[in-house]
Design a protein that fits this description.
single chain, D-Maltodextrin-Binding Protein, domain 2
Length: about 375
């Protein structure tokens, strides 16, 4: 891709703000390796890596190259953070909440149950101090983080049997990532964290009774509807989900400031592209899935009510046990409450008005 054509691209228009005189000041030849937690078949997720790589190369006239590797090509999918931290690779692409076993505060880089929606998450990260707090935390693991894009609100997942109440969750073996697994475990679920490529075989063999991944487009690609016909919403544990570009902190600090700016700007453009892509692909995919027989269901209200109480109790426990968790949680929670008060007046009321009008047209 030529630099001129890149700068004209609408999806990467933000990169046009990097002026060529600035690039000319310090443009050494740099080659990095990026290990992703996702397979190439998921072009929405893995595609963020190639989007970033092409953008960085275009802006620097090919002098800063990022070679992209899918899950398992260099390291296993759920060991990307370790590979970045210890310098096996310069850069990784993953969901931060896969690593809560190291420290529960890793959850905040992706999302926490009953957390912010995608726009609130972006606001917190980029303009309310969230990213600075996260990078202060990640620095303890020799990692620097750049947000890599958001999936938007996710679905509640695929179940082999219908879920009519919270009682039906007890004993279910479910693939779920992040702190959502901790919440559902207190409701009787047996949570399991599996990489994308391992989920369908486990579901097919009966090792799993249910699975949540992302949303209609990715779920359709992974074929979950073939085995588990009941498709539930909403995923209260994934009101949005932010992916991460993890960078080895020593490597980040060794980059020329110009290249740091290039990475930041291109990562922001990549994030914008990813969510816009999901917002186009998911509606059509859901229509196909339902047309093919998927049983779309809302999670029962008793599950949502119970999960909220359990979630708040869990956060109190984790805050008491982990100062890293408490510091970030208190900051995010305060921001989210202020945001929600305005959201109820602005976007939520507008969206409700639009959905109501749509339903009335259907009825007519």
């Amino acid at each position: 891709m030529k630099r001129r054509s890149f700068l004209k691209g609408a999806s990467l228009g933000a990169a046009a703000g990097i002026a060529s005189p600035a690039i000319a000041q310090s443009t050494p030849t740099v080659t990095w390796r990026l290990a992703s937690s996702y397979p190439k078949s998921l072009e929405t997720l893995y595609g963020a890596c190639t989007h970033l790589s092409e953008a960085v190369s275009a802006v620097t006239d090919g002098k800063f190259k990022i070679q992209v590797f899918s899950a398992g090509e260099i390291v296993p999918a759920l060991q990307v953070a370790d590979a970045v931290s210890n310098g096996t690779v310069e850069m990784g692409h993953s969901g931060s909440y896969f690593y809560i076993g190291k420290d529960t505060a890793f959850a905040f880089g992706t999302i926490i149950p009953w957390g912010p929606n995608s726009r609130q998450m972006q606001a917190w990260l980029f303009h309310a101090g969230g990213l600075e707090l996260l990078n202060e935390f990640y620095g303890k693991f020799n990692i620097y983080n750049l947000p890599a894009g958001n999936t938007g609100a996710q679905m509640g997942g695929w179940f082999r049997k219908e879920i009519k109440s919270a009682e039906d969750l007890k004993g279910l073996k479910m693939r779920i990532g992040g702190l959502g697994g901790n919440v559902l475990q207190k409701m009787g679920v047996i949570p399991q964290q599996l990489a994308a490529g391992d989920i369908y075989p486990a579901l097919e063999r009966g090792v799993l009774d249910a699975v949540e991944f992302v949303g209609p487009y990715d779920d359709e690609k992974l074929g979950f509807a073939k085995v588990a016909p009941y498709y539930y919403y909403p995923g209260f544990w994934d009101g949005s989900a932010e992916l991460s570009f993890f960078i080895n902190l020593d490597k980040w600090n060794s980059l020329p400031p110009t290249y740091q700016r290039v990475l930041k700007t291109c990562a922001e453009a990549t994030g914008h592209d990813m969510q816009a892509k999901y917002d186009v692909l998911n509606p059509a995919s859901l229509k196909r899935l339902v047309g093919a027989g998927a049983q779309l269901r809302a999670l029962p209200q008793d599950i949502l009510k119970e999960s909220y109480k359990i979630t708040k109790d869990l956060y109190a426990e984790m805050s008491a046990a982990n100062p890293n968790f408490k510091k970030i949680y208190d900051h995010l929670w305060a921001f989210q409450q202020d945001s929600l008060r305005f959201w109820a007046i602005s976007d939520l009321s507008y969206d409700y008005m639009q959905v109501t009008a749509l339903q009335q047209r259907w009825a007519g």
